[in-house]
Predict the 3D structure of the following.
Amino acid sequence: MDEEGKIGSFSGATDQMKGCRMSVEAVSGNGGSETQALAEITSAGLSAALREYPAGKTEPHCHDYDVCLHILAGEFQLGLADEGVVRSFGPGDRLFVPAGTLHFEDHGPLRMVVGRRHPKEAAGLNGAASDAS
């Protein structure tokens, strides 16, 4: 970790069959409060919402939208499918998962601010963002 608290990125090869990339940018600690996280995500052009999730796991998948996570409470593990790379994150950590990143999740009860930017929004086109992940 460098002096600015950046964890850095972790990535793997592109999964050609699914058209998914495998890369994530992460920053450790100092993610700020809920209000700061909401402001930061919306100022970056993403729709943002406070979310609480029960413990859970997902199978490898990718989204057709960018996701930004600010973890407020709980522990969150994010893995890059087919590479065996798993990182753990906790309160104050921030992650940016680009659209098309093949990943899986494993977490206990979790409270975080989630930001999403769909391709139409990123291109400046009108279109409602879905809340489904």
Observations:
- Strands lie at 6-11, 23-27, 47-53, 56-57, 66-73, 76-80, 85-89, 94-97, 103-107, 110-117.
